[in-house]
Design goal:
Length: 221
């Protein structure tokens, strides 16, 4: 599946919503169809992304919201320059597990200005053609983290904080956002995503043929 131009899809939602599962399912489905598709997630494994992961593991209390925000910005700049934009310029479908909408919600919940966050990011980061926002109540998200993953919620996954984050996600009103009920069965959510993506991609397809991805594809998964 060769496109006339690059196509960026971002999966968003609070922790435990099922973003990663649905991003993986969509990637695998499009890959089987022969699409020029790549997949990545944020935070990445850059030096800034690694610092963000350490914050989640317990260092967050030593970092101000402004310092944390700069880590996300710097990590995303590297991601855009080295992965997202190059593949979009090659007319690939790029699937992201989190993007700057998460920064709007999570850093907005810490008191930073969401409009400024969006403007800062859109000054250098491509705006997606499509954002799939999977919505679940924070209690359900935390229960999934604890039971399905067998993990203890980290610094980004506390219920009081996620409730604030959820409100910022709810305030997003861009016309390219598709909101889905994350409490539905995984297969039901996947089928809805596939149907919508198929409809949207019809306007971008140039011709059908097998796509051979470069063997030296950068890996930010």
């Amino acid at each position: 599946m060769i496109l006339k131009q690059g196509f960026l899809i971002a999966f968003e939602g609070i922790d435990g919503a099922g973003k990663t599962t649905q991003a993986n399912l969509l990637y695998e489905k499009l890959l089987k169809r022969g699409a020029c598709v790549v997949q990545s997630k944020e935070p990445t494994d850059s030096i800034y992304g690694q610092k963000i992961k350490r914050l989640a593991a317990g260092e967050r209390q030593y970092t101000s919201p402004e310092e944390e925000y700069l880590l996300f910005i710097n990590d995303r700049r590297i991601h855009v320059e080295n992965f997202i934009r190059p593949y979009l310029e090659k007319n690939h479908i790029v699937i992201l597990d989190r993007y700057y909408f998460s920064t709007i919600a999570y850093q907005g919940a810490l008191g930073l200005d969401p409009k400024k966050i969006q403007a800062d990011n859109e000054a250098f980061a491509p705006i997606p053609e499509f954002v799939i926002l999977i919505e679940v109540p924070p209690k359900l998200g935390i229960r999934r983290i604890e039971k399905s993953r067998g993990e203890v919620p980290n610094a980004f996954e506390k219920e009081e904080y996620l409730t604030k984050v959820d409100k910022f996600f709810n305030s997003l009103n861009e016309n390219y956002i598709l909101r889905l009920n994350g409490a539905q069965r995984r297969s039901q959510i996947h089928n809805t995503i596939i149907n919508v993506v198929n409809d949207v991609l019809e306007h971008y397809i140039d011709r059908l043929e097998q796509c051979v991805l470069s063997e030296n594809q950068p890996n930010y998964k």
